[in-house]
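Subject: Sanity check before I submit

Could someone independently write out the structure tokens for this chain? I want to compare against mine line by line before I put it in a report. The sequence has 217 residues.
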Amino acid sequence: MTPIITAFEASPDEGQGLARDMPVRWAFEEVGQAYDVRLVSFAAMKEAAHRARQPFGQIPTYEEDGLVLFESGAIVLHIANRRPGLLPENADARARAIAWMFSALSSVEPVVVEREIAFFTERDKPWYAERVPMIEARIRARLGELSRYLGDAEWLDGAFGAGDLMMVTVLRRLSDTDLLEAFSNLAAYVARGEARPAFRRAFEAQHRVFLAASGKA
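---
Independent answer below. Compare away.
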């Protein structure tokens, strides 16, 4: 069975490659695995059929041979475990790569997403002007720590892997800000990820959905 994932029928990111199906698409492309996509509307995401796959009414989901998964990190890890190309063979290196996946989603992403949520839900509040600099200070602290660790290295731990895929995905969420400009090695790191042919194929596949939804295809 060809794996099936779900994605937004009309993504709120307007074709920027930020929706949560993007790292899953990228992982499939890195390992050379064909996949199908079931597009869902915002209304369908909240219906019982979709919630049976994703209890929180979100995307993406993954289905293959009776297995149903949700959460992009879990899906990417499953793909990386099943097919070569994203996790090292050496057990210790493999564990480190998985640790970087968790780090991207647990240590870096929460404060990045906090900024996005504040923009969408609090920008009309009187405290918003004071809150944003505090959030951005926490983001800079995380970026500084990551920058120091990465140093002059190309990737986080040797060859490109699932940890880099997830970390670049998270850092791309700052593309509408100048927060990465102070960390030239991180900006270059993201650019290297975006230059990978597998990333470009995944981005273009997701972007085509936006073009079709907006009538620009």
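---
OP: Matches mine. For the report I'm noting this point. The longest strand covers residues 4-8.
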